[in-house]
Each structure stands twice: as C-alpha cells, then as structure tokens.
Backbone:
C-alpha cells in the first residue's frame, strides 16, 4: 500500500467518523445526561462496532452483498427499525427525572454503555455502506495483514476519539445544568431526530 492510498483511507475514515448520525446523537446525549465516564464506554462500543463492519468489508462483505443484494436491504430495514425503537424509547422517557447524585454516576454500568454503543453501530447501515462500498474499494487488492490491522486500529481510534470528544463537550457542567433544566425538550428532540434517521434508513 502506498502512502498516498493510506492517507486517502485515513481521510475517508475521519470524515465518516465525524459525520452526523445515530452514534454522535447518543454520544452527545450520554455526555449531557450521565457524564464523561459513560460517554467513554459508549464511544468504545461505537469504535468496536465500526471495527466489526470494517473487518467484515475488508474480508469479503462487499462480495457477499454483490452475491446477495437483498441482504443489504434486510440490514437497512432491521437497523432502521432498531433506531426508530431507540428513538421512541428516548421520547417516551423524556419527562422522567434523572436521579443521580454525582456527574460521573450513571444508571447503566460501563459494560451496558459499551454494548449500547456496539448495538447502535451494528444497527446503523451507514458504516455498512461506507466500509462495504467505499472503504474496501480503496484498499488495494493483496494488501498485507499488518496494513489491514493498522487500518482497523485507525477505524477504532477515529470513531472512539471523536465520540469521546462529543461526550466531553456535552458533559461540561454548564451543558449538564442546561440539559437537566430542559431535559424533556432535549430528550424529545434527540428521540425525534433518532426516530427520523431510523425511518429514513429503513425506507430510503
């Protein structure tokens, strides 16, 4: 792999990681409602989910979608439905108060936040399309295993660091106080946006 190709893949991955989507929405909400610690675990799960799709693409996902085009449609439908369900749950519980005594105390454990990040990323067809149709298409055939592993490390690092940054920005005390005072409105906005994204993915 040439340096130019590597830098192209790096740029593509960073742009994909920072583009708005369900993961960014959840990272922002988690940072505001539960603090940075929960956001870090969530971001780790998001990064792990991205690595799963990237590895699948690099090792044959694009070929599978070519052989079975209906599979991608099924993933879009199921993933979109999951995001709609998650958005509706956020909307439904928007008026419930958060009963935490400290900013780093969250109702969910670190593992629960991690799996929330993983499932959100696995249910999101955006990385499926990106890694299967774009990312894997730029990687030269016959790329050695060390290069592939380095690319997977970059995928994890970019998704993880970006969502940690989002969670950190929204975890500041000023943002947290503002969130608590407007929790119902903000959660319903997040829930509505997530529901719309899920519906667009499922029906698009």
Residues:
């Amino acid at each position: 792999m040439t340096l130019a190709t590597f830098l192209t893949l790096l740029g593509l991955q960073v742009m994909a990681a920072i583009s708005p989507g369900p993961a960014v929405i959840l990272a922002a909400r988690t940072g505001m409602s539960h603090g940075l610690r929960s956001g870090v675990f969530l971001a780790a799960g998001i990064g792990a989910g991205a690595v799963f799709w990237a590895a699948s693409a690099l090792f044959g996902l694009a070929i599978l979608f070519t052989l079975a085009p209906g599979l991608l449609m099924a993933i879009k439908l199921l993933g979109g439905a999951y995001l709609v369900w998650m958005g509706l749950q956020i909307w439904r519980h928007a008026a419930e108060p958060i009963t935490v005594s400290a900013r780093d105390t969250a109702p969910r454990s670190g593992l629960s936040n991690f799996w929330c990040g993983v499932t959100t990323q696995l249910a999101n067809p955006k990385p499926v399309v990106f890694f299967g149709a774009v990312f894997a298409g730029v990687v030269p055939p016959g790329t050695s295993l060390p290069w592939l592993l380095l690319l997977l490390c970059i995928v994890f690092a970019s998704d993880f660091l970006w969502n940690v940054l989002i969670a950190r920005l929204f975890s500041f005390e000023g943002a947290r106080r503002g969130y608590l005072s407007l929790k119902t409105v903000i959660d319903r906005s997040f829930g509505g946006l997530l529901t719309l994204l899920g519906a667009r993915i499922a029906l698009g």
Q: What stands out?
A: Residues 28-203 form one domain. DSSP finds nine helices and no strands in the chain.
